[in-house]
Amino acid sequence: MAEIILCPLLEVVLNKVASRLLKEVALTYGFEDEIDKLRHSLSIIQAVVEDAEERQVNEKALRIWLADLKEVAYDIDGLFDVFDLDVVMSRSHYGFGMKKFLPSLKPVAAYLELLPKLKEIRKRLEFLAAEKVRFSLKQQVVETRCDAEEKRQTGSFVIESEVVGRDQDKEAILELVLSNGGSGFNGRFSVIPIVGLGGLGETTLAQLAYNDERVTEYFELRIWVCVNEEFNVRRIMKMIIESVTVSRSDFLGMDVLQSQLRSLLRGRRYLLVLDDVWNEDPDEWDKLRISLSDGGEGSKVIVTTCSTKVALLVGTASPFYIKTLSDDDCWLLFKQRAFAPGEDYPKLEAIGREIVRKCGGIPMAAKALGSLMRFKREEEEWLYVQESDIQNACEGEDGVLRALRLSYSHLPSHLKCCFAYCSVFPKNYVIKKENLIHLWIAEGLIQSKERKSLEDIGNEYFTDLMWMFFFQDVNKDCDGSVTECKMHNLIHDLAQSVAGDESVVLVHGNVSKHLARTHHSSVVCDSELQTIPESLYEAKKLRTLNLLFSKGNLGEAPPKVFSSFRCLRALNLCGSGIKKLSDSIASLVSLRYLNISNTLIETLPETVCELSHLQVLDLSYCCDLTELPRLLTKIFKLRHLIINGCDRLSHLPDNIGRLLQLQTLPIFIVGTQASQSLKQLYRLPIGGELKIQRLENAVFVPGAIDANLRDKPKLRSVGLSWGSNHDGSMMRNDENDRVAEELLMSLRPHQNLKSLSIEGYPGGYFPRWIRGSNLPNLTNIKLINCRRCEQLPALGQIPFVKVIYMRGMPAVKNIGSGFCGRGSGRPFQSLQELTFIEFPNLEFWQGTNAKEEFPSLFKLTVNGCPRLKNLPFFSSLQHLELRNCNEMILS
Q: How far is CA 478 from CA 482, 483, 533, 754, 779, in A?
């Protein structure tokens, strides 16, 4: 069932209407009264819409009303993109003048055409906002929640013979439950969280442990409490007391309840199961924890939850993450429900096993599908379910998506919107976290707060959804940061269910019948479908379009994209094979996200610079791209210029330092003019990766060598290179070398840096900032073709450096103790890989203390060091590679 979430969008629209600049323009052109009415209507809407969103689950008419309201909100939001006063102000900075770009009465008139419909909606909302109706609304929501909670009550009883695939998990939990040790609260009790995706069997696993004979013998008291949505400490304490005394508790006061509970537990070893916990408030948990602290030594609390955040909040032990079942185990569960004992249908088994694969290892889904097939014995009926999504096959069945919907219902509205947006991706699609956050921002789903950037807030949203298991198969980089993920098929079904007609994925040319209200779409372009289906052009209000190619050969984007989808905010042509981008791209006035990475494009049209709302321009690995648009800095809202792998770029547009919101600029090419000097980086809030190339050009702009890298805390990787091919063979003179030494000194990065590369450096020595106290977080360093440096920098006391790679340093004759650095700690304590290549004049390598130096090194590569006569002692070395070295070393 589609669910309409409107609060985040209304907040965006209301912020735009409340703009001070809009008020001034409205006053100038005489429509201030209309803007005030609009602002007032939106305020009323915002006051009641949250309650309406809650109630829509049970009232179809209200859901339709919210859908209509959302369309109007989209129209208003889109209109403000055309009528954007920020753009007016930015253009005035380019000397066009404010008056020329103040809005004419024509767009104002178009804007006012929306007001009659808005007034009608406002009247309906005013009716809902009436005191009596609002009270009734809230009461009905509470009653609905209570009714739903009654249905979700769980008990401790379980039929163990019907549980499959959990024997090892049960034993692992029992080991934790029956252990005498543990770092519990006050040494009295420990908390063991069982956590996983809804429907995986967290409750079942707790029941298995709770009813085990070893547990009944070990604990004097066993207590089971189903917590559900509301973590009401008073109610939980009352239920524990009633479980222990086996009688109804009439205590009302919190103090009396607490005293009674502590008295009942005092000195008695207990096992308490708190099933289905969602509370993330540490204060509420502390209230309960205090009342449980008088139990006997070895008492345990098992908490089952679908939230990693909850597990980390309450647990004194590491969370026990429950995993999916194998297809064979799911088949056993399915067969229990689908067939009576002794029934044998060989023809149906093969189909049934294919159906079970849809469960993705979730026991609840296997049981629900088995129940669905219980009275179906025709092959056609089973084939229909095999070819259908679970949500369609089990429509109306209780339980198949119930647990997952419960997880969804606990999300705040902003996370609901972000999750529903993920339905735009096909099943099993690898989602890049960075791209997803950029798309959320483009769609306006992330709103700024305090001093945090939108990207940082988006990262928090992603983490929250990941901790609720809405994302799986998470991939991480070498630093442990999440880079990619997928969605479980059932989670994807849930996303499609809540998104409804707002989002559609077209595969193999399939066409949705409801496109009028479609705002987000992906088209999977394969051998059967190479372009956009004509029917999709009916979606005139499309805001996201992903063209997903397995092997692109599009040549040029379909012209109708630019004429039909004027509301587009995100356009993804990655891997499409396009060689040219039409000038008509400028017609997409609302575009925030443009991805044309991994294509054959050579140049971009200058009309790209008219996309005044553009935030993300992804050109990564456009290997044929030779230049960027000359007036790129007109796109003053640009936040991410992604040009990794664009190796044919010889220069960047002038004055890129004007893009004051630019956070991603992986390549900066130093030019010979002030408009291309390092000074352009000074005010940019760049993070992530930055490679500064052609540093030899810095000599042509005296005084413009400060890139201010030291004040860029979000930079994680910095590369510094001299020369066009980084081989150190460019023309040199003493003056240029002296400037290079001063330049490298000025390029000291922030201490958060994790990776540093220096290539083709013509100076004679390395700056003092390359040392442990200045770069405490550095993990990777490369020094390549630094041909005049006679001494290696003091790297030994950098605490976390894991990889050191050095090549092409003919001036180094000896490696002395200075390489280890000065400090009290063991040198190179974290170093795992060390490489020396092309050190033709290196003769001696002076070690320090054999027991302390290189304690973690497992791989050493020495290549092209023909004069080297000795090596230090390496206590942990596992891989040694020696090539083109002195025979004394080889022997």
A: 10, 10, 41, 11, 10
CATH 1.10.10 spans which residues of the chain?
A: 411-503
Spatial distance between the Cα atoms of 684 and 797, rounded to a whole number of angstroms? 31
Mean pLDDT value across residues 635-644:
96
Q: Is the pLDDT reported for residue 395 higher than 60? A: no
From-to residues of CATH 3.40.50.300 in the chain: 153-321
Percent of the chain with pLDDT over 70: 83
- Domain 153-321 class in CATH: alpha beta
Share in percent of the chain as helix, strand, coil (round to 5): 40, 15, 45
Q: How far apart are alpha carbons 86 and 634 in whole angstroms?
A: 12
Cα–Cα distance measured from residue 516 to residue 514, given in angstroms and rounded to the nearest whole number? 6
Model confidence pLDDT, tens digit, residues 229-286: 788 899 999 999 999 988 887 766 888 888 889 999 999 999 999 999 999 999 999 9
In the block, tokens 């004992």 appear at 341
List the CATH code of the domain at 411-503. 1.10.10
From CA 337, how far away is CA 683, in angstroms rounded?
65
Residue 19 in tokens: 């703009």
Note if the pTM is more than 0.85. Answer: yes
Q: Is 890 helix (H, G, I), strand (E, B) or coil?
A: helix
C-alpha angle 244/246/248, rounded to 5°?
A: 110
> Which has the higher per-residue pLDDT, 415 or 7?
415
- Return the higher-pLDDT residue of 399 and 357: 357
More confident residue, 206 or 409: 206
Q: What are the DSSP E strand ranges found in 577-658?
A: 593-595, 616-618, 640-642
Of 55-64, 692-701, 716-725, give the lowest mean pLDDT range: 55-64
Q: Which residue has the tokens 């965006």?
A: 12
What residues contact 450, with CB distance under 8 A and at least 6 apart? none
Give the H or E element holding residue 276.
strand 270-277
